[in-house]
From TrEMBL:
Gene name, Swiss-Prot/TrEMBL: ftsE
Matches recorded under InterPro entries: AAA+_ATPase (IPR003593), ABC_transporter-like_ATP-bd (IPR003439), ABC_transporter-like_CS (IPR017871), ABC_transpr_LolD-like (IPR015854), Cell_div_FtsE (IPR005286), P-loop_NTPase (IPR027417)
Subcellular location per the Swiss-Prot or TrEMBL entry: Cell inner membrane; Cell membrane
Keywords, sorted A to Z: Amino-acid transport, ATP-binding, Cell cycle, Cell division, Cell membrane, Membrane, Nucleotide-binding, Translocase, Transport
UniProt cross-references to NCBIfam families, sorted A to Z: FtsE
The name this protein goes by in its record: Cell division ATP-binding protein FtsE
Subunit structure comment from the entry: Homodimer. Forms a membrane-associated complex with FtsX.
One Pfam family from the record: ABC_tran
PROSITE patterns attached to this UniProt entry: ABC_TRANSPORTER_1 (PS00211), ABC_TRANSPORTER_2 (PS50893)
Source domain of life: Bacteria
SUPFAM superfamilies for this protein: P-loop containing nucleoside triphosphate hydrolases (SSF52540)
GO MF: ATP binding; ATP hydrolysis activity; transmembrane transporter activity
ABC transporter domain boundaries: 2-233
Assigned GO CC terms: plasma membrane
Amino acid sequence: MITFDQVSKRYPGGIDVLKNVSFELAKGEMAYLSGHSGAGKSTLLKLIAAIERPNSGTVLVNNQNVSKLKSDALPYLRRNFGLIFQDHKLLFDRNVFDNVLLPLQICGFEHKESAKRVRAALDKVGLLNREKSNPIALSGGEQQRLCIARAIVNRPSILLADEPTGNLDAEYAEEIMNIFNSFHQVGVTLLISTHDAALLRETNLRIIELKQGAIQPHSRYAADLHETQGVSA
Ligand SMILES: Nc1ncnc2c1ncn2[C@@H]1O[C@H](COP(=O)(O)OP(=O)(O)OP(=O)(O)O)[C@@H](O)[C@H]1O
């Protein structure tokens, strides 16, 4: 579903952030993307959503070379994605319901169907009773769940989440991972970047680890990581 083939990325005037990165993420797979701060995790996620373009190599999403797409094709590509990035980009001039409604308005959904979908998404993240609140009145964990509701309201087939549990306490982090697991169960493909050592230690999911822009072969799977650390998986 997602294929990186020898992908390199350098920002203007900078060093190579990603160096010949190759991996595949299968349809319906859920995996973690780990690595130190500055390793290139956000950049890799942005390349999938064609927010950034590689300098060389190919990024395929559903067999489509996204780095070659013209800008007028990007909105169609992005309908496949739910994007949860670190800067929440919540709109504080409207309530919770209207924040989640926005992607559907952009896609031109009819109002009755939109309202149904918005409430289903808010229900999924446990915020149905807060639909009239302003996002500013929500806690950090609730704002994060609101971002997830907004990302899933379009029923995307791929969810890309950049540090979704960053700055959250363990209880909120677990809630968010439970929500992601429930998407995984229904066939959504998920790639989740994280620094969270506890999450990575405990997971049985595949871990794609970036170190200075390159994928670490030893940590492709959590089981391998445990082996290299002398811990039984
Ligand atoms: N738009 C940009 N222009 C120039 N350099 C950038 C840009 N975005 C990221 N970088 C640089 O690219 C490198 C990788 O950044 P990136 O955000 O992808 O890493 P990361 O692994 O997600 O880091 P973190 O965990 O701290 O969020 C960093 O050195 C960063 O400063």
